[in-house]
Design brief:
Layout (H helix, E strand, L loop, with lengths): L1 H36 L3 H19 L4 E10 L5 E14 L2 E9 L6 H16 L6
Antiparallel strand pairs: 1-2, 2-3
Length: 131
């Protein structure tokens, strides 16, 4: 009787060991298949390039404000100078134009206003074909 109990336990342990080996073997092809479904670097880069192109095309249809900040540091890493320009990107006859709104926290000078106004006047007077 004792022998029968030991053999049953051995059989159950053998069955568990065999099934775990079978389950492990069954999982390997699935893992390889999962790797095939992961996009490769070329696909990811291609998607990124397409998104950037769509963004560049879309900006030609919108007016937006842009902030350009230029910071210069000295050899110790301390701020030496800072230049901040805030510009409004507008469309004039289908052409994108940059209009200065603010420079270093100040409104544009009269000279900058005149220069900016001349450029838009020229663009407004020049007919551009529709895109």
């Amino acid at each position: 009787m004792e022998f029968l109990a030991k053999s049953r336990i051995a059989a159950v342990l053998g069955l568990i060991a065999a099934s775990s080996v079978l389950f492990a073997q069954n999982g390997v092809p699935d893992k390889l298949q999962d790797h095939a479904s992961i996009p490769d670097a070329r696909h990811i880069i291609g998607q990124s390039v397409l998104a950037a192109e769509r963004s560049l095309e879309a900006r030609d249809r919108y007016t937006y404000v842009q902030r350009d900040q230029d910071r210069r540091l000295d050899s110790q890493g301390q701020l030496k100078s800072e230049k901040v320009d805030v510009t409004r990107m507008i469309l004039v006859n289908g052409a994108r134009f940059e209009q200065l709104v603010e420079r270093n926290g100040q409104l544009p000078s009269a000279e900058e206003e005149v220069l900016g106004g001349r450029s838009t006047d020229v663009l407004q007077a020049t007919p551009h074909p529709a895109r």
